[in-house]
């Protein structure tokens, strides 16, 4: 029986008005992959920040024992010296720096006070090989896709001689293939004796790799399940997380579908910088009133580019084609024109496009629809508060107050604020780009219900998702994109994962 590498005992951590952790215990055995699970806001990220010294000793109560030794970390580098390395929920590479510079940032390879670029490059090559990333050390981190950036983060972790690797939702932004690779990498680390803790909302992945699963709920430890000693089903984990059975993953709905609300004809978009590169190639589609239409596709298929270019040309150049609303062509050259025309876009990248993290929750919610709560250009604070409270309740946003800074919310709860913000504009066309990324199973159900509500009010909903079961569970009709083109259109009745996959790779050599 393996001994415990890590023991966190009776950890309590409070923020003003929030008890994020209350007497939490966590035991991680040497050499295992330990999953940490729980709903949005359960305290998973906070617990890992306590462990890695982001919250210093004294800022929490309880004890941390690593290899039997009591640890009192004052900074992140204190925990790194012991071999505890964390990769945070939000990626933290500096886009302007090269891969090599990012990997050795703050940990430079130097000779007599001067950076040894030869050694830096050599070691970077080795590390990139270990994580299976075929890129040059000199390439800028910002030019890589999220999947590859994630691998660079892992390479960076390995450069520090890691004993305990902590991954906070590493696959949330990854497609199926990249996620598989990452999980395989994790298993190979296990083979080399590296222990890891993984946080994920993707139950199927956890089932594949985890040896033990600790479940947190409302800042408390609920239980630790040992995958090798008992049979653990997804239902069993969900029950631990939400405290009840979740018999349906998707709410029931009887659609009432009307006339075509929005139609797009021959929509073509070029890359914003590389002016010869076609990103969306004469796409045509329509969405009826009351209909939920999905867009499936692999990473880079052009789905986000299509959505953003429709939303007031916020992506791309040389955009051509027609948008018709209720059969009449409309012009939407800017984001404000798009909002005016009743189009809303909920982004997959909440940090970059969706939210102002420094501001409080209520102002984020009202941001895109200030006119509805203003009179003569003055925002009515009371009305703003009333609306914000309404959405907090509707979306079950976990926070003591809507006056909280949005940046203080857990990842999943930030996503709910983005959704609130756009639903508050009462759009006629609601475009959702990966709306449930990083959202726990229970909250997903709530978000699905809200999408259903929008449709039943006669709105047109266009939904991009990389999770095929989600598209199958939610959509009346699904378009499939590949390499900028629409390669298929599938009705709900005939939709299967296999059929969608077939169209997703159609036309490739
Ligand atoms: N800096 C902070 N200030 C105030 N409250 C915070 C802060 N950080 C976290 N919280 C609160 O602590 C609770 C736990 O948050 P945490 O980020 O640990 O959740 P999580 O389990 O990681 O959720 P998710 O799955 O959504 O990422 C939440 O209620 C959150 O709003
Ligand atoms: Mg988190």
TrEMBL record:
GO terms for molecular function: ATP binding; ATP hydrolysis activity. It is a peripheral membrane protein. It holds the Pfam family ABC_tran. It is found in: Cell membrane. CDD domains: ABC_Carb_Monos_I, ABC_Carb_Monos_II. Residues 6-243, 264-508 form the ABC transporter domain. The keyword ATP-binding applies. It comes from the Bacteria. Keywords: ATP-binding, Cell membrane, Membrane, Nucleotide-binding, Repeat, Sugar transport, Translocase, Transport. GO terms for cellular component: plasma membrane. PROSITE patterns: ABC_TRANSPORTER_1, ABC_TRANSPORTER_2. Coiled coil: none annotated. PANTHER family: CARBOHYDRATE TRANSPORT ATP-BINDING PROTEIN MG119-RELATED (PTHR43790), XYLOSE IMPORT ATP-BINDING PROTEIN XYLG (PTHR43790:SF1). This is ABC transporter ATP-binding protein.
């Amino acid at each position: 029986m393996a001994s415990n590498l890590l023991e966190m005992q009776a950890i309590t951590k409070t923020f003003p008005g929030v008890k994020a952790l209350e007497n939490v215990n966590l035991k991680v055995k040497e050499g295992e992959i330990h999953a940490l699970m729980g709903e949005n806001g359960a305290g998973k990220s906070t617990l890992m920040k306590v462990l890695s010294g982001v919250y210093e000793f004294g800022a929490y109560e309880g004890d941390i024992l690593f290899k039997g030794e009591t640890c009192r970390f004052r900074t992140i580098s204190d925990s790194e010296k012991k071999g505890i390395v964390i990769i945070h929920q939000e990626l933290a590479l500096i886009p302007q720096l090269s891969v090599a510079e990012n990997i050795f940032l703050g940990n430079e390879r130097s000779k007599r006070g001067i950076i040894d670029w030869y050694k830096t490059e050599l070691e970077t090559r080795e590390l990139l090989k270990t994580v299976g990333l075929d890129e040059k050390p000199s390439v800028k981190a910002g030019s890589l896709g999220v999947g590859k950036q994630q691998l660079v983060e892992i390479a960076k972790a390995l450069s520090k001689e890691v004993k305990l690797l902590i991954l906070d939702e590493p696959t949330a932004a990854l497609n199926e293939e990249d996620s598989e690779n990452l999980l395989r990498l994790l298993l190979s680390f296990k083979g080399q004796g590296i222990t890891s803790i993984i946080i994920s909302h993707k139950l199927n992945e956890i089932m594949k790799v985890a040896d033990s699963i600790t479940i947190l709920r409302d800042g408390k430890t609920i239980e630790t399940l040992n995958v090798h000693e008992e049979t653990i089903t997804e239902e069993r984990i969900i029950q631990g997380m939400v405290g009840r059975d979740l018999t349906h993953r998707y709410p029931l709905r009887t659609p009432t579908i009307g006339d075509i609300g929005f139609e797009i004809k021959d929509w073509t978009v070029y890359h914003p910088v590389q002016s010869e590169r076609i990103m969306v190639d004469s796409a045509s589609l329509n969405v009826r009133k009351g209909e939920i239409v999905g867009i499936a596709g692999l990473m880079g298929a052009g789905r986000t580019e299509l959505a953003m270019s429709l939303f007031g040309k916020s992506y791309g150049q040389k955009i051509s084609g027609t948008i018709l609303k209720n059969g009449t062509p409309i012009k939407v050259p800017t984001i404000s024109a798009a909002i005016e025309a009743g189009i809303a876009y909920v982004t997959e990248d909440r940090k970059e496009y969706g939210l102002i993290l420094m501001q409080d929750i209520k102002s984020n919610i009202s941001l895109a629809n200030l006119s509805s709560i203003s009179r003569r250009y003055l925002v009515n604070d009371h009305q703003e508060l009333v609306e914000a409270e309404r959405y907090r309740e509707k979306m079950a946003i976990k926070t003591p107050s809507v006056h909280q800074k949005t940046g203080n919310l857990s990842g999943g709860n930030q996503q709910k604020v983005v959704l609130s913000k756009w639903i508050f504009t009462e759009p006629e066309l609601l475009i959702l780009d990966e709306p449930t990324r990083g959202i726990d199973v229970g909250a997903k159900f709530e978000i699905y219900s809200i999408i259903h509500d929008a449709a039943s009010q006669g709105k047109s909903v266009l939904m991009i998702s990389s999770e095929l079961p989600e598209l199958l569970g939610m959509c009346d009709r699904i378009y499939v994109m590949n390499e900028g083109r629409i390669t298929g259109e599938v009705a709900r009745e005939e939709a299967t994962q296999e059929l969608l996959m077939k169209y997703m790779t159609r036309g490739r050599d």
